[in-house]
Design brief:
- By secondary structure, the protein is mainly alpha-helical.
- The longest helix is centred in the first third of the chain and has 41 residues, at 2-42.
- α1 crosses α2 and α4 packs antiparallel against α6 (129-156).
- 81% of the residues lie in helices and 0% in strands.
Length: 183
């Protein structure tokens, strides 16, 4: 029983660690998005505060992405180069983000329209649609790089990849690259 408790505790610790790391990753990207919005709105003397929204969004995005990693696209995708999986996942995740952002804008303006469906149609004619496109674009880029990193992590394993970027001197990496060119 004690060993089972240790396994559960270790699994919980790993799950929390992965959620925190992925949340941190998306928090940085969402922070960049908030920064861009603030810089644009300063020109119009509009105060914009969205840090708490960005942090909550990063946490939600992290959990959704970690759950979506369990989706398999089938044997055809497994036989393709990794970029196919990266593109498919990025497209799938981005489509979900766009859908949620559009629903959010429609929900916000439903009381001004004759219902939710009308509000959803009007979202495309409202000036906020450009915020939706900008948010979707930045989030799409973050999702693309997340998916690339996920493939690299699976190929190398987490320790090798972090060691490559955090411990090995650049000259050693460049030297290894030069050796491969000579072969």
């Amino acid at each position: 029983m004690k060993e089972k408790t240790k396994k559960v505790a270790k699994k919980a610790k790993n799950e929390i660690k992965s959620i925190l790391l992925v949340t941190l990753y998306f928090a940085v990207w969402f922070g960049i998005l908030i920064g861009i919005k603030k810089l644009i709105l300063i020109d119009y003397n509009i105060e914009f505060v969205g840090l708490s929204t960005a942090l909550i969004g990063a946490l939600i995005m992290a959990k959704v992405v970690l759950i979506m990693e369990y989706i398999e696209f089938g044997q055809w995708v497994k036989k393709q180069p990794p970029f196919v999986d990266v593109i498919l996942r990025t497209f799938l995740y981005t489509s979900g983000v766009l859908f949620v952002l559009l629903l959010e804008k429609a929900f916000e303006s439903r009381h001004e329209s004759d219902g939710f469906t009308t509000a959803l149609k009007q979202v495309f004619q409202h000036r906020d649609i450009y915020k939706v496109w900008a948010s979707t674009l930045v989030i799409s880029i973050s999702l693309f790089w997340y998916n690339v990193f996920a493939i690299l992590t699976q190929y190398f394993n987490n320790h090798e990849l972090s060691s490559l970027f955090l411990n090995i001197p650049l000259e050693k990496v460049l030297l290894k690259n030069a050796e491969h060119k000579d072969e």
